[in-house]
Structures are given as C-alpha cells and as structure tokens.
From TrEMBL:
NCBIfam families: ksgA. Pfam families: RrnaAD. This is Probable ribosomal RNA small subunit methyltransferase A. Residues 31-197 form the Ribosomal RNA adenine methylase transferase N-terminal domain. One of its GO terms (molecular function) is RNA binding. Keywords: Cytoplasm, Methyltransferase, RNA-binding, rRNA processing, S-adenosyl-L-methionine, Transferase. The gene is rsmA. Specifically dimethylates two adjacent adenosines in the loop of a conserved hairpin near the 3'-end of 16S rRNA in the 30S particle. May play a critical role in biogenesis of 30S subunits. GO terms for cellular component: cytoplasm. S-adenosyl-L-methionine binds at residues 24, 26, 51, 72, 99, 114. The keyword Methyltransferase applies.
Length: 284
C-alpha cells in the first residue's frame, strides 16, 4: 500500500528522486510500523523529523503526537508535503524548508527520522547539543555499526567514542535495500539514541578524538604528536609538543588508539587540556 501510494504521488507531481540527495523513500509498511512503535509517542510529544520528504513518516507521527517539526530542503518536495497536509486537514505539522545542518531546531523532545545519508554525521553531532528524550533514526548500516562499535573492533571510530560517551545507543533492527524507492546501494539500520544526562564531551575532547583517530592503529602518543594541529592552533615546535605528550599517563599514550575506550580518551583530553592551559600561563 505504501509503495503504491508513494509511486502515485511522485508520478502525479512529476518528481524524480535523486539518490545523491539521499532521496530514498521508505515504502515498506512493516518497517514504518516498527519505527513508529519504537518511538512510543504520546499526545504530549513534540517530534523533530529531518528529511521529511513527502510525509511517509510525518503523517503517522502527526497522528500520534502533539506536534511535528518537519525539515525538508527540496523545494518541490516541500510543496508536495504541504499540499498533502492541507488535503488531509493535518494542522499540527510545522514544515521547515531549508538545510537542517545550518538551521536552529525549535523545541522538541523526541526525534524520529529517516535521515538523508549524506548528512548523517553532522546531524548526529548537532543533536548532541540539544536536550531531548531519545531519537529513533535510520542510517546506512555501516554508519549505524560504527555508532555502536566498541574498543578493539575494526569499525571502532571517533563516532563510536562520541556515542559511547554522550549517549546510550542501540541498534534496533536492519532494513533491507528493497524497503525503499529507489533502492539504495547499501542496507540500512534503525538506531535508538538516548542522550546521557551529563555529557562530558567539550570541543577540546572532540578535537583530541579527531587527532587520535587520524592514526587509529598507532599508539596514542604518536597519534597526538602527528596530528597535534587538530587540537591546538598554537605555533608549537615538535619538541614542545613531544614534551607535553610525555607528561600524559604513559599507560594511555602507549596504547593503540583503537583499543582506548571513551573514558580513557576523556582522561587524555583532560590531562592535555590542563597541560596546555599551564603552558599558556607560563608562556603567555
């Protein structure tokens, strides 16, 4: 039913979907129902949806919540979405036209989205700056697996560290390619992401993570030395940087980056930040 409805709407409005823009519309009724079920919505929820498209998720979200804030960038698709909402008499959806990575989000307490794949990373990190109950989000399977990866695993990454430190992240279920129109080249997965109450990541921590994971198979001390420019824009010579790193916990600086857990990386970040502040005071 959903597949037929989607095809008819696109044909009616003469819209050809663009894979490059992440326009892969969910057409599987069973998967849609599972997403809505996992969202556990009630009539007091304000739901944020990013990449609303023609309203596949938007309509059932509006039915079960107080309000939906729906972001969509494609002007043609926005017109279709607004027309559908008007025809169905749905008045509790606020359609936000524009790039969700560059716009402020109004109040929301839950997020439910089939994210455009090319903005998965910036949107995920942006969401960490907001307070909300939890998010039910669809990603590329590979990206979702990196989100839940643990130290020592091959797909453990900077993303994994940030998720482990700032959220409780659970991979709920996989989604096959044929659940979409047009079918993407890769499989997908739905993630439940719940922010932790006291996130400890600041910009310095994020920069330290970025520096470390540019050389994930090297010892962390060497990785920091080679990518210190990611952490500080101070014009420090290599000897000074090495001296700072030598003052860090040697058990941590001798460990391979991909084996460090989020708390160990947090320790490195905090120690290095203190050393940098001391250096600034001494040489400022």
């Amino acid at each position: 039913m959903l597949a037929q409805e989607t095809s008819q709407l696109l044909k009616k409005h003469q819209i050809r979907l663009d894979r490059r823009k992440g326009q892969n519309y969910l057409t599987n009724d069973h998967i849609l129902a599972k997403i809505i079920e996992n969202a556990q919505l009630n009539d007091s929820d304000v739901v944020l949806e990013i990449g609303a498209g023609i309203g596949t998720l938007t309509l059932p979200l509006a039915e079960k919540s107080s309000k939906v804030v729906a972001f969509e960038q494609d002007k043609r698709i926005v017109r279709v979405l607004r027309e559908r909402l008007h025809e169905l008499g749905i008045s509790n959806v606020e359609v936000m036209e524009g790039d969700a990575t560059k716009m402020e989000f109004p109040y929301f307490n839950k997020v439910v989205s089939n994210l455009p794949y090319q903005i998965s990373s910036p949107i995920t990190f942006k969401l960490l700056n907001y307070n909300f109950d939890y998010a039910i989000l669809m990603y590329q399977l590979e990206f979702a697996q990196r989100m839940v990866a643990q130290p020592g695993e091959s797909n453990y990454s900077r993303l994994s560290v940030m998720m482990n430190l700032c959220t409780h992240t659970e991979l709920l279920f996989n989604v096959p390619k044929n659940a979409f129109l047009p079918p993407p080249r890769i499989s997908s997965a739905v993630i439940k992401l719940t922010p932790k109450k006291n996130p400890q990541a600041d910009k310095f921590f994020a920069n330290t993570c970025r520096a470390l994971f540019q050389h994930k198979k090297k010892k962390s001390g060497k990785a920091l030395l080679q990518s210190f420019h990611e952490i500080s824009d101070l014009n420090l010579d290599r000897t000074t940087i090495r001296d700072l790193i030598l003052k860090l916990d040697p058990e941590l600086t001798e460990e391979r980056v991909f084996k460090l857990n989020e708390k160990e990386i947090l320790t490195i970040s905090r120690e290095l930040k203190e050393l940098m502040e001391g250096y600034d005071e001494k040489n400022g």
